Amino acid sequence: MSDRFTIKRFSILAACMLMLLFLGTNQAWSVFVGPLQASHGFSDFQMQLIFSTGTVAFCTVIIVAGRLHDRFGPRPLAIASGALIGLAWALAWAFGESYFWLWLAVGVLASSGSAVGYVCPLATAMKWFPRQPGLVSGLAAAGFAGGPILLSTVAETLMRGGWQPVEVFGLVAVTYAPAVLLTGLALVRPAGHEGHAAVAGFRRRELVGDRRFWSLWAGMFTGTFPFLMVMGNAKPLAVERGLSGAAAAAAISVLAAGNACGRIFWGLVLDRMGPRRAMLAAQAVMIGSVAALLAQSQLGTVVFFVGLFGIGFCYGSNFAIYPATVSRLYGPHVLGSVYPFIIASQAFSSFGASANGLLRDATGSSTPGLLLALMAAVLGGALCVVLSRSLSAEAVGQIGRQ
């Protein structure tokens, strides 16, 4: 392997990580919840509906975008992604005082822009590093997890200095859209990748009868439900549990940091242990983490942050384990055609955030929502035990034979 080739593929990996960093904005939403409620009187349900809508939009659009990526490559999708993100945050800047426009801009358009671009860097990185699918998918996806850390830190600092949320939206519009465009244009596929005919010949309808596919779908659903319930309400949850100021704001960054670390760690675990053991281990840690949040009032603030980090850590596992497993089972050339259907399970798990908002409005407490999250984590563990048998070493060894 020549030095020139090595430099090229690592520079492309860096571009992939940076692009995903600027695409990861939706999970920083809770930093804006309190200021928007204080200035405009929006309810918890309205704020969580924006977050849930964003997840549904992302999961819906990525199904189409992933297929287009496999057929036409990353650059056209990167251009469309940058344009949508710029339009979305510009609308939120101009009309963000209206709930409808805020919902449309952040919940629909910004999330759609992220979905259009998401598969491009992830699939490109895995094509350049075919021997380390878990590690590379984790590294690339860690950029997406770092996005909320960047945005929430900048937004929190600016709003403390007197900026209004809509002004922060304007800053995002003029900085993030060009960044997505420039990093996206740096993406190229390696020579010798499967062409248009190989992708067009793949029939996605056959996934309906594939138990391996449903194992991954169920694992993603239950593995993301607890995180999505907590992420959209992280800062208010911290305030309710007795934290204030910078400590409460840090809740978002702790979740996001766990998310980023989890993507890298679980990618390594996948490469060493295989899909089934990695899924089971991640789900077990998720159960313990949600239980820690419920027990925090008796055990202290440190336990609260440990629980938050653990939830983010296990959420991140999904975005290292599942794309790498899809690549191993079906081939990296159709990652964009298959993996978006796995991600689409979040369109259903995202309603946990709205359910949490309704429960908070009705009870004034986050405890019922956390109990629901714990039930989902336990259910996920049980499903992993039963369904993930299809991801055993024997099943993985049958890749490409169906």
List the SSEs and their pairings.
Elements: H1 3-23, H2 30-40, H3 44-72, H4 74-95, H5 99-128, H6 133-160, H7 165-185, H8 196-200, H9 211-231, H10 234-240, H11 245-273, H12 275-299, H13 301-330, H14 335-343, H15 346-349, H16 351-363, H17 367-387, H18 393-396
Helix pairs in contact: 1-5, 1-6, 1-7, 3-4, 3-5, 3-14, 3-16, 4-5, 4-7, 5-6, 6-11, 6-13, 9-13, 9-16, 9-17, 10-11, 11-12, 11-13, 12-13, 12-17, 13-14, 16-17
DSSP helix fraction:
over 70%
Percent strand equals under 5%
Mean pLDDT: 83
Structural class: mainly alpha
Apparent shape: globular
Q: What is the strand tally?
A: 0
**What does the radius of gyration come to?**
20 Å
Question: N-to-C SSE series?
Answer: HHHHHHHHHHHHHHHHHH
Number of helices: 18
Poorly predicted regions: 393-402
Distance between the termini: 33 Å
Biggest beta sheet attributes: none
